[in-house]
Amino acid sequence: MATVQFFNQFPCKTRVQNPSNSKPLSKPPSSLVPMSALTRRPSFPPGEFAVSRSDFRVRVIDAEDELDPETSEGGGSALLMAEEAIESVEETEVLKRSLVDSLYGTDRGLSASSETRAEIGDLITQLESKNPTPAPTDALFLLNGKWILAYTSFVGLFPLLSRGIVPLVKVDEISQTIDSDNFTVENSVLFAGPLATTSISTNAKFEIRSPKRVQIKFEEGVIGTPQLTDSIEIPEYVEFLGQKIDLTPIRGLLTSVQDTATSVARTISSQPPLKFSLPGDSAQSWLLTTYLDKDIRISRGDGGSVFVLIKEGSPLLNP
């Protein structure tokens, strides 16, 4: 709270009257103000007026007058800064939407053409220059939560994303969940097939090394318990090693297989997940967060790869 300074007291002099020389006043001296003048309400025109002290001035503003911010001290610069801030936010929102739109149909970057990759890279660079959170590690509440991978240039994930490696099985979701209270990170890949869904995840601890960088140390891997579906859906065909395989002839077997799957599902789903340790040499990495807000996080890995993630629940996940 700012210190409030009081006005200096007005100096005054007390006149002492000598009783021996005092004489009764027959009439009020001309220097005294008549009582009628004291009781009359003063009228001040719009503008300025001064009281007895020349250094204590009061400005009277007419109700119809408008205060021009350009003429008030600091008003013009404050207004300009507010307008620039609003314009910057609007530009950032347009860039975010343009980036999400350019990711559509790229299968997290796997099927993006070179032209699309160049366009995405340019939008990422523009967003990074407008990062509203210059020190992400000081804003852990924004980092906290589940983030869905929307795009990556990390070639190590491409074999995992490639279709046709395992028939009827696809990558349904890749996510990263950050617990800022316990400084833990969980990377998870969810696989979906006609018979079941399962996941493979890694658990890690992270340490803050700079305002933008965290060091990650992986501790264990987890293979989730397959969750078998009660209802089996078989597509008309699948692609395997570049060839289309017609699945229409096996549709007649669905009834008996579905009954078996229902009984097996209750048994397998009750089993605990399988955990395994990770080798120490390859269980460390670092991550640099170059853009962060409530919707989007852009990170760069130690190999130069880029990751674009969207916060779970963000409207950007439903374009």
Automatic annotation (TrEMBL):
It comes from the Eukaryota. The keyword Plastid applies. It is found in: Plastid, Chloroplast. Keywords: Plastid, Transit peptide. InterPro entries: PAP, PAP/fibrillin_dom. Pfam families: PAP_fibrillin. Its main location: plastid. Residues 95-309 form the Plastid lipid-associated protein/fibrillin conserved domain. Belongs to the PAP/fibrillin family. This is Plastid lipid-associated protein/fibrillin conserved domain-containing protein. It comes from Brassica rapa subsp. trilocularis.
